[in-house]
Design a protein that fits this description.
It is a single chain. This protein has 483 residues and is α+β, with helices and mostly antiparallel strands. It has 15 helices and 15 strands. The strands form 4 sheets. An 8-stranded mixed β-sheet has the order 6-8-7-14-15-11-9-10, with helices on both faces. The protein has a 3-stranded mixed β-sheet with strand order 1-3-2. The chain is globular and about 70 Å long.
Length: 483
């Protein structure tokens, strides 16, 4: 792939250091592509080109003097709108925050800049990051470059669309319920959900908030596994308060070849059925890993009831997100729940109970979560990684009617709620585990399918290493047709 717009950030950094392309030249190349393609995609929602051009010129001048700002010297990149970036609004897609302008950068952003990155713009998100589609009343709808009639996912949907279309070199996303993983899967990208706490989310919280949210993480999105590893290394670590006492030391990858791995493969569960068009590319990938010499099991699982895990994730997710509710909204949900029969088990009733969970019930749920976390640790004594879908379907068509997670998607010819996708988000996310999404293939309709690579707690670099081996020997990023 010769177009610099689609090269990995790692390769572009090498090209800059070798003088094969200039920092200003590369920035202008992305800006020109944004002018050409963003009017349809609506992925990039804000740019500060005056400042970005100054930084690009400074980066070129520094290089001419023999100075190296770091591994991302002069690399143009965008970040998800939920990150605080000085000089930009941080709206979270909410009209009440459209003019909120933070006074300092998020810590992860500051670290990317310190590594040499040139952050020139921000990408679109759904309202309060609360959707697997990306649209809001401020910036409108973001479209998938593989098919503009379909969503790129959410909540890091603008980030995924921009990367897939070659509008930026690297991205920073966030993930509480697959907000990195699902867009990476829908758009044919690499994305990494870190182990909980590996990267401080300070400065990537809803405006006015400072407490970290249960289940929520921030992490990189890219067009190569090497970029994920590089960005994770740059972004990772505690904030200043926690950093007084501890430092992060992620275990280095232990495996060098696909043949070195012990792999479990999980393609489906009865209560969260996966479309056959998603299962098949992952099945073929697993066959290829087997042929490469890896020990692969299609039956090995953690000793965890998947239905219980699914319900527990929904409960903890609802409780985690309830902190974003206004007092009036919370009171309304309490009132609505009081009008339902105590034994009602509808999706609405469950959602209301989850969003109004008592602290005692949260403690009980958290105890169950940690018991499952130890079951995962036992499983990873025998297996290095688990391969599974990132979501139940490929990218669905835009649908903005009704409640976000009750909107129907098609799975094996049947209409099911979009919330079906959440099992594959919560199964590893519930237990704080890292997972990397890598391209696995295409559906018969030509839509991307990703494989989710789940590892043990703090096994982030092993997940990314395996994704890199797949990239080298099986499937790398492929640009969508027409871009």
């Amino acid at each position: 792939m010769t177009d610099p717009a689609f090269r990995s950030a790692s390769r572009l950094a090498a090209d800059i250091r070798a003088g094969r392309i200039g920092c200003r030249q590369l920035l202008e190349h992305y800006v020109a592509r944004i002018e050409d393609y963003n009017p349809v995609l609506n992925a990039v929602i804000a740019m500060d080109l005056e400042r970005a051009r100054r930084r690009a010129d400074d980066a070129d001048a520094a290089l001419a003097r023999g100075e190296n700002w770091g591994p991302l010297h002069g690399i143009p990149m965008t970040v998800k709108d939920s990150y605080d970036v000085e000089g930009f609004a941080t709206s979270w897609g909410a009209p009440e925050f459209r003019d909120y302008r933070p006074q300092r950068n998020a810590i992860a952003v500051e670290r990317l800049i310190a590594a040499g990155a040139n952050i020139f713009g921000k990408t679109n998100v759904p309202l309060f990051l609360g959707d697997l589609q990306t649209y809001n009343a401020i910036h409108g709808v973001t479209r998938n470059p593989w098919d503009p009639e379909r969503t790129p996912g959410g909540s890091s949907g603008g980030a995924a669309a921009a990367l897939a279309a070659g509008l930026t070199a690297l991205e920073a996303g966030s993930d509480i319920a697959s907000s990195i993983r699902t867009p990476a899967h829908y758009c044919g990208l690499f994305g990494h959900k870190p182990t909980y706490g590996v990267i401080t989310p300070r400065g990537q919280l809803a405006p006015g908030r400072v407490a970290f949210t249960d289940l929520a993480v921030v992490g990189p999105m890219a067009r190569s596994a090497a970029d994920l590893a590089l960005a994770l290394e740059i972004m990772a670590g505690p904030d200043a308060a926690d950093g007084v006492a501890w430092r992060l030391a992620l275990p280095r990858p232990r495996k060098q070849r696909l043949a070195d791995y012990r792999i479990a493969v999980m393609l489906d569960v009865p209560h969260a059925e996966v479309d056959s068009a998603v299962q098949e590319p992952i099945r073929q990938l697993a066959h290829a890993v087997t042929r490469a010499g890896a020990a692969v099991s299609s039956s090995a699982r953690p000793d965890i009831d998947t239905w219980e895990a699914d319900r527990l994730f929904h409960r903890l997710l609802g409780a985690a997100l309830s902190g974003r509710q206004s007092a009036e909204t919370f009171a309304g949900k309490v009132e609505a729940l009081s009008r339902l029969p105590p034994d009602e088990d509808s999706n609405l009733a469950r959602a209301l109970r989850d969003a109004t969970l008592s602290h005692r019930d949260w403690l009980i749920a958290n105890e169950t979560r940690h018991r499952m976390r130890l079951k995962w640790a036992e499983f990873f004594q025998d297996y290095d990684l688990l391969l599974c879908p990132a979501a139940a379907s490929a990218a669905p068509r835009h649908n903005h009617e009704g409640e976000p997670f009750e909107r129907p998607i098609t799975v094996n010819g049947r209409q099911v709620p979009l919330s079906t996708q959440f099992f594959w988000a919560g199964y590893p996310g519930l237990a704080f585990l890292p997972s990397t999404v890598a391209p696995a293939g295409l559906t018969p309709e030509g839509l991307p399918v990703g494989v989710q690579i789940v590892g043990p707690q703090y096994g982030d670099l092993e997940c990314i290493r395996f994704a890199g081996l797949l990239e080298q020997s099986y499937r790398a990023f492929v640009a969508p047709p027409g871009y």
